[in-house]
Each structure stands twice: as structure tokens, then as C-alpha cells.
Design a protein that fits this description.
4-stranded parallel beta sheet, 5-stranded parallel beta sheet, Rossmann fold, 2 domains, alpha/beta, homodimer
């Protein structure tokens, strides 16, 4: 199980490879939020999301013989690119199972990052797990899960180490830390890091309306699922349920989750554009939306906000930019 | 006149106030450019451009009595915001003379950053210098020029100190450094910093077609002017001529300038969006355009590229995003 020593070890393996993203701010965002807002822009991480941290951490923790045979992952999005690029930099093969109807650009990017992309027909009922199991067996590949995997959580936790250090440099030890939350890998990793390095901070998961499985699970004290549609604006953080490994960590360490509307998320993407000069994808902007539009649910003088990714289609981004607030 | 000791002194005054922008990269940009591309994203600087460096350096160098009376600047753009915010953080008044037909958002932003914005009617023939002289005399204000001012050049030079340090951390000492160039404040400041801290690097100014006064001046060995229109896509870096202080520095230290088309600049803004998750304004994207589309004019294995600002209107950005490459 992931603990602080695993996060420290992951940080050592990531040193010189991961990008230490800065901590940004804007007086305009402070004014809207009614408090100091510090932004941790993981959209600036390699491959445009925090997923490179977990991908590298998992790859670098493998036994060298297993690693040389290669890795496999299921993903149509950020985890695919994070694992593919980490594998490429390690000089080992990666196989990524993607739905054939994934955006052509994401398929092309994942291939360009060195992966062997295997497409499956999700409409036609092909079972990606069956394909994955077969390929893993044939090729001797190691599966890297997107969040319910201790080394992946440890890798995402390195983002929390940086938050603790960078906030301390500003003299800040007490803050709510809002984390864009899908399966809970980033959220639980940051929570573990802050438990040890910034114990007065509280991690608050943030989810989109209609996909608030973590919020409901934290209230219920047990894993709850999303039973509605599995697609939405915030695709990067839509998951059926929190993980079996991530949920107990979040339950032990996190404060109440926050839930934001798609309109608030879109407005936050515009604010990130105007005030921070950052490209945030919808799923990466929900934490900023919570800071700006749910200030009444936050009590600390400073709020720290992750922007977890920036892999958004240009046409969608252009459309959102031209909407009125 | 600005020298390396003035830049070091500016860096000391800026410490803890300026943002140390990271050095970014993307394997996709490397592939297009045919070499390693390192990006210095000053769009992530306070107020969305490098101008905050010069504004702070000039404010903080003033005699405290003079500073307390306040400062004045002429600008419709990035210099206005940089000076206004630096003055606000110093707790002193700023007066910014802006054309009445400047974009409403820029006027509103400059006011929100604490400035007393004085509008003049440029179509009606009001003389902004006359207005400025009168206000400066009445209020005892100190004028902060946008580039032809030694302390402003020293402030911009701190960007060069960071480039030298960050490149050295990557083991890089030899590179062309492409700088988006208007009046030459950033270009000459970086050139002075690198002369002392990375002498194997060569600064190359980059300009838009039709506004290549620095390119022509460097060839001629004497200041040449732009005699055509004074408006264009790359508004932030359109100036009538290099400065009397900046030009001799550029002439002594810079390699040949590069000139890019507006179409190349627009394509570079799309690449910054897709590959770096950064919002670059047109004038801030010309150096990236040179790296990507004029690779034949660069000889070094590594090229370092400034993205000097990100203050672009959302509707223009949306339009550029949806254009085909």
C-alpha cells in the first residue's frame, strides 16, 4: 500500500525527469474567490497532465527484466500519453488499448509518443480486458492501472510534495487543497504527501455534477458508484467509482468533496485563459471552479488549486472561449 | 547605462516578487524544429508578460521620496499592466496614459491593477506627450519608459539570468536564444545577461514581417525605422524603431534577426496551445514561429525560445485556434 516512504522514493526516481510545475496566482482570481488562490498547473507537466508522474513512477519501480518486456495500459486519454511517454523515455515498449472511436488526435499523439496502439470496437462489444489479458500474456507485458495501483498513487503524490514545499516557501501551512478527482489517484497521493509534510492542509476532492461518486462515497463512508451516463464534459475525471485502494486513503484524510456545474467549469477555463494564460481541459478546471464559485464551502484564508490537465480539443476550447460569462 | 551589475542588482530587488518562469519543452516541437526546443514562458509572469520585470526593477530603483509621489507610463498594453501592478505592490500611485480607443478589457484591467488611467483621444489629435508632461509636473510623477530606460532593461535582463541558470542545469551552454523583439528592452537585457553567464549563447531578435526595423537596423549598423502602418497582428512588439539605448547593445551582442509571417505566428499560437498548454499572444509567439518554421537559419543543436506574453483577446484566440494549419 502507498505510504509516504513510497512517495519519497518515487520523487527520487522522478527527479530530473518530471517537471516541477510552478505555483501561480492572479490578483483577479483572488478577488473573485475572496481569498488567496494558488494554482498548481499540472497542465504544464510532460504530456499535458499529472499522469506522467504516475506513469514514470510505475515504470521506474518495475523489475528491470519485466520493464524491458514492456507495459500495457487501457486509456483513451491522459493516462495513455503519460504511460507511453514514460515508457519511451525508459526505452521500453508500451502497448495502449484504446477505443477505435477515440479522438484521432489522441490516437495519433499516443502513437507519436512511441506506443503500440491497439484499437478495439467498444460499440461492437469487444472486451478490452480480454484483449489486454491476451496481449499481456503473449508479450509478457506488465499492466499499469490508471489509479488503483500503489506506485501510480505514489507518483501522483509527488505533486503533493511540491505543493507542500512551494506553499512553505510562501509561508503558507494552512489551506484547503482542491484536487480534480476521478478515480482518486491524484487526490489520494496528494493527501498522503500533505499528511506528512503539511498536516494543517486539508485535501478536498472536486467533481462535476452528475459524476459525484467520490463526494457521495465520502458521505456514506463506503464506495458509491455513478449509475448514469459515463460520458460528459469533464471526460478526464469521469470514472464509475473511487478505487479500492484510493477510497480508504481519501476517506481517512480528505475533507468534504465539492461538486461544480459544467457552466462553472467552462467559466473557469475562461478565467484560466485570461488570468493565468493556461489551457485547462474541462476535467482539469473543476477545482478552480470550486474555488471561484463555491467559496462559501471553503474556510481557509488560502486555497490551493490543482489544474490537473490541459488536453482539450481546440474546437471545444474555442467554443468555450467565446461564450459569455 | 545598463550593465551586468545593474542586472544582478535588479535580480536582488525582484527576488520574491517576480515569478521564476519554468523552462518547458515538448517532443512534438522538437520534431518540427529538428532540434531541441526549450521554451521560456513569460506569459506566465505576473500580468501575463515579461513587462512586470522591468516595471518592478524601475519602481524599486527609484528614490523612495520620488517613488512615493508615483509613476507615469504611456501604454495601451503589457507595459501598462506591468507598471501598474508593480506600483500597486509597492503601495504607490501609478498614472497610465492610454488611448481612449484601447480595448475596454485592457483599460479595465489596468484600472483594476490600481492605476489612474487617463484616456486621450488619439484620433482627435490630442498629444499624449503633452498630457503626460503636464500630469507628471502637476503630480510630481516619474516617467517609466517601456524600453529605452536602463533600469527597465536591467529588469528584463533578469529573464536572461534565469535562462542561463536553467539551461546550465540541463547541461546546455551553447544555443541560439530567440527573443520576441519590439523596442528591444527584453532582447538587449537578455543579451547582456547571457554575455556574462552563457557567453556561447547568441541572442537572435525575432520580428513580424513588415515590422522588421531591428533586423534592418542590425544589417545597416544604424537605427532604421518602420515607415508603414503602426498596427498589425503582433501589436505588443510593433514599435517605430529600436531604442537609442537598446540598439547599441543589440548591435554589439546579437546575431542576425529572424522575420516571421503572420501565418507562421498564428500556427505557433496553435502549437503553444496544443503542445505546451500555454496561451501566447501574437507578439509573444514570433520566436516560436522562427524556431519551428525558419529552422534553416539556426545552427545550434538547442534553441531557446521566449514566449514573451499571453495577453490576447479571447475572440481572436478562438478564431486562430479554429484555423487549419
Amino acid at each position: 500500500m502507498t505510504d509516504i516512504s513510497m512517495i519519497h522514493a518515487a520523487a527520487e526516481r522522478l527527479a530530473g525527469h518530471v517537471r516541477r510545475t510552478p505555483l501561480l496566482s492572479s490578483p483577479f482570481l483572488d478577488e473573485i474567490a475572496g481569498r488567496r488562490v494558488l494554482i498548481k498547473p499540472e497542465c504544464l507537466q510532460h504530456t499535458g497532465s499529472f499522469k506522467f508522474r504516475g506513469g514514470w513512477a510505475a515504470l521506474s519501480a518495475l523489475d528491470p527484466v519485466a520493464r524491458a518486456r514492456g507495459v500495457i495500459a487501457f486509456s483513451s486519454g491522459n493516462h495513455a500519453q503519460g504511460v507511453a511517454y514514460a515508457a519511451k523515455l525508459h526505452g521500453v515498449p508500451s502497448t495502449i488499448i484504446m477505443p477505435a472511436d477515440a479522438p484521432a488526435l489522441k490516437i495519433a499523439n499516443t502513437r507519436a509518443l512511441g506506443a503500440d496502439v491497439v484499437l478495439y470496437d467498444r460499440a461492437g462489444g469487444e472486451d478490452r480486458n480480454e484483449i489486454g489479458d491476451r496481449l499481456a500474456a503473449e508479450r509478457g507485458l506488465t499492466l499499469i492501472k490508471p489509479y488503483d495501483e500503489p506506485q501510480v498513487i505514489a507518483g501522483q503524490g509527488t505533486c503533493g510534495l511540491e505543493i507542500a514545499e512551494q506553499a512553505a516557501e510562501l509561508g503558507i501551512t494552512d489551506a484547503d487543497v482542491l484536487v480534480c478527482c476521478g478515480g482518486g489517484g491524484l487526490t489520494s497521493g496528494i493527501a498522503l504527501a500533505l499528511e506528512h509534510h503539511a498536516p494543517a492542509m486539508t485535501v478536498r476532492p472536486v467533481e462535476p455534477e452528475g459524476f459525484d461518486d467520490v463526494a457521495r462515497s465520502l458521505v456514506a463512508g463506503a464506495i458509491q458508484t455513478n449509475n448514469g451516463p459515463q460520458v460528459g464534459l469533464c471526460d478526464a475525471i469521469i470514472t464509475p467509482a473511487p478505487g479500492n485502494i484510493t477510497f480508504p486513503i481519501m476517506h481517512r484524510l480528505c475533507g468534504p468533496a465539492l461538486v461544480v456545474s459544467d457552466d462553472e467549469t467552462r467559466a473557469s477555463m475562461r478565467h484560466a485563459f485570461t488570468r493565468l494564460k493556461l489551457v485547462a481541459e474541462p476535467g482539469g478546471a473543476v477545482a478552480l471552479a470550486a474555488a471561484l464559485f463555491h467559496a462559501d464551502q471553503i474556510k481557509t484564508n488560502t486555497v490551493i488549486v490543482t489544474i490537473s490537465g490541459g488536453n482539450v480539443d481546440p474546437s471545444l476550447f474555442a467554443q468555450i472561449l467565446t461564450e459569455a460569462d
